[in-house]
Write a structure and sequence with these properties.
With 308 residues, the protein is an alpha+beta fold. It has a domain of 190 residues: L-fuculose-1-phosphate Aldolase. It contains 11 helices and 8 strands.
């Protein structure tokens, strides 16, 4: 890479840092950014410098093992997280880690980000994983993303923040903007009292648009037929012991299935998810007569038993 091109990347990384700081995604010296310059060199932000006030010559260059090869300031300790992601995804060049407040709120609550609400999220982000908590800075922390990063470019880091990956600096940063805006909309909608969902058929339509936009999705390779696209997460099974369950944003189909004692299956699993939801994505009203009859039968059985 020419010196001129590298300098432009340095200027762009500083600009992304200013956006992160201006958006309130990184307080004080929080957050870090990286860009793969070549097979064994990565441009990155330094430690203990506000992302809003970086200068191009503040940035560092490290190798793929994290060893600093140039730069007057010390590289961020969290670069191991970036390097682990970049090694796992050689098709991508850039990572952004910061603490966007609305998305981080989901990470702190360990609340899975719901699907089938905004079409743009399905197309531009796909499913969002939550990685387990580990003390930041070390390789153990970096390794928490490994089960997920192969299938998503947007990860919530439990009790910490977000990591987004992209083909370039702006792509990685835009995913941070998108996930925080989405989480903010979800929180606002919940305050209004209702979140409406669309169904699996509409989710499949959106996922099928992605190849036309050159956006991959792991669910396409597994087949969408009989997939539970709106309920269970792709990351629920087979990704380790850490599997957060929704407590606040629960798709009505999951409520209905649990009430019926049924099971759901994500893509790649056997079985067909069955639901009874109305056209607005809300769970169908329970059969009151059946419930009353069931309770009456139980009461009569108990009374007959006590009479004996």
């Amino acid at each position: 890479m020419s010196v001129q091109n590298e300098w432009k990347l340095r200027e762009q990384m500083c600009e992304i840092g200013r956006r992160i700081y201006a958006k309130g995604f990184a307080a004080a010296n929080d957050g870090n950014i990286s860009y793969r310059l070549s097979e064994d060199r990565v441009l990155c932000t330094p430690t203990r410098v506000s992302k809003g006030f970086m200068k191009p010559d503040d940035l560092c260059i490290i190798d793929m093992d994290g060893k600093q090869v140039s730069g007057k300031r010390k590289r961020s300790s969290e670069m191991l997280l970036h390097l682990t992601a970049l090694k796992a995804r050689p098709d991508l060049r850039s990572c952004v880690h910061c603490h966007p407040p609305h998305a981080t709120a989901f990470a702190v609550a360990r609340e899975p980000v719901p699907k089938c609400v905004l079409p743009e999220i399905e197309v531009f982000l796909g499913e969002i994983a939550i990685s387990p908590y580990e003390t930041p800075g070390g390789q153990a922390f970096a390794d928490t993303i490994l089960p997920y990063v192969k299938d998503t470019e947007t990860i919530l880091l439990a009790n910490h923040g977000t990591l987004t990956l992209g083909a370039d600096l702006e792509d990685a940063y835009f995913k941070t903007e998108i996930i925080d805006a989405y989480c903010r909309i979800l929180i606002l909608a919940k305050q209004l009292g209702r979140v409406n969902y669309y169904g699996d058929d509409k989710a499949a339509e959106l996922i099928n648009l992605k190849p036309k936009l050159n956006i991959p999705d792991p669910r396409l390779t597994r087949g969408l037929e009989n997939c539970d696209l709106c309920g269970n997460s792709l990351f629920r099974e087979g990704y380790g012991d850490f599997s957060p369950e929704p407590k606040v944003f629960i798709h009505p189909k999951l409520i209905d299935q649990k009430a019926q004692g049924g099971e759901t299956s994500a893509c790649g699993c056997s079985g067909e998810a069955k639901t009874s939801a109305n056209g607005n994505g809300h769970a169908a009203a329970p059969d009151i007569d059946a419930i009353v009859k069931s309770i009456t039968d139980q009461v009569m059985t108990a009374l007959n038993g006590s009479a004996k």
